[in-house]
Specification:
It contains 9 helices and 15 strands. Helix 6 packs across helix 7. Helices cover 28% and strands 22% of the residues. It has one domain: Jelly Rolls, CATH 2.60.120. It has an 8-stranded antiparallel β-sheet. A 3-stranded antiparallel β-sheet has the order 7-6-9, with no helix packed on it. With 281 residues, it is α+β, with helices and mostly antiparallel strands. The longest helix is centred in the middle third of the chain and has 18 residues. The mean pLDDT is 97. Its cofactor is Fe(2+). Keywords: Dioxygenase, Oxidoreductase. GO terms for molecular function: dioxygenase activity.
């Protein structure tokens, strides 16, 4: 069975060895040096073991990380899914497991049209049960659509919708969880080695297992779309009439691929640092 068949059947696929070991080693070294050069900027994000957590768009400060888009055999799966070249919208860097509850990404990656988004998870460490593996619910991408309009009316009526509404997020994820339970679908961990890549369908229910070990679980999650694809949040997810027709951000090129350009790196959704400051550090 090829990668697209697995993606269609299960809602995710693991592409083993998609990123060369030399690139994995290079990125781990570059990120380590980045932490040393920018110790003050990173300090508030580190846990008691010195591990970074959920750094948004680190690739804008460490340019070599864009090689995970340009030198990654798994990106061909995304190209086939979209039917056009894949571009990088945003990324997340982790040194420990996300430990995030099971969820679908679509409420905060509400593309126009819906579903023009994929998650691409690149392992920079070996990941097993003790250091926070990705959890997936095979088949959850193919469940019947949730009545999003009914949730909107119950929560908001015709009033305004917070783009990052906690109530909107929880109500939708609870509805998907109930569907999975009724269908007998259960989560399972995905064990990977450095250089392995996990790609998931935009409707896959997934999350992060507890991270019990003190060792790292270095990984990069790329959120990819076709170039120019507008991406909204819950205001667009619950009210598609609010969608933009074109992405408002600009792109730059790396080896024939396009990368969305933003001005900040976000550390754990707690504070932001301007990209130019981190690049010169």
């Amino acid at each position: 069975m090829d990668a697209m068949d697995s993606l269609e059947r299960d809602g995710y696929v693991v592409v083993r060895g998609a990123v060369d070991a030399s690139l994995v080693n290079e990125l781990n070294e570059r990120i380590s040096r980045f932490k040393q050069r920018n110790a003050k900027a990173a300090a508030r994000n580190l846990d008691e073991h010195g591990r970074l957590y959920r750094v948004v768009n680190l690739h804008l400060a460490i340019d070599a990380m864009t090689k995970l888009l340009t030198e990654n055999a798994a990106i061909a799966v995304c190209d086939a899914f979209f039917g056009e070249p894949t571009s990088l919208y945003t990324s997340l860097y982790y040194e420990r497991g996300s430990e995030q509850s099971l969820h679908r990404d679509t409420p905060v990656f509400a593309t126009t049209p819906l579903g023009r988004y994929m998650g691409v998870w690149v392992a920079l460490d070996s990941v097993s049960d003790d250091n926070g593996p990705l959890m997936v619910v095979p088949g959850s991408h193919a469940l019947p659509p949730i009545d999003v309009h009914a949730i909107r009316q119950r929560l908001y009526g015709e009033g305004p919708i917070d783009p990052m509404s906690p109530e909107g997020w929880t109500a939708y994820q609870d509805a998907v969880a109930a569907q999975c339970e009724a269908a007998g679908l259960v989560p399972q961990p995905v064990h990977v080695s450095p250089g392995d890549v996990i790609i998931w369908h935009p409707q896959l229910f997934h999350g992060g297992a507890p991270h019990a070990a003190t060792r790292t679980r270095r990984s990069v999650v790329m959120h990819v779309t076709p170039k120019g694809m507008p991406v909204g949040h819950m205001d667009v997810f619950y009210d598609p009439s609010r969608a933009r027709q074109q992405a408002p951000w600009r792109y730059y090129q790396r080896d024939g691929r396009h990368v969305a350009r933003f001005k900040h790196v976000d550390f754990g959704h707690q504070y932001k640092v301007r990209t130019w400051f981190l690049r010169k550090g």
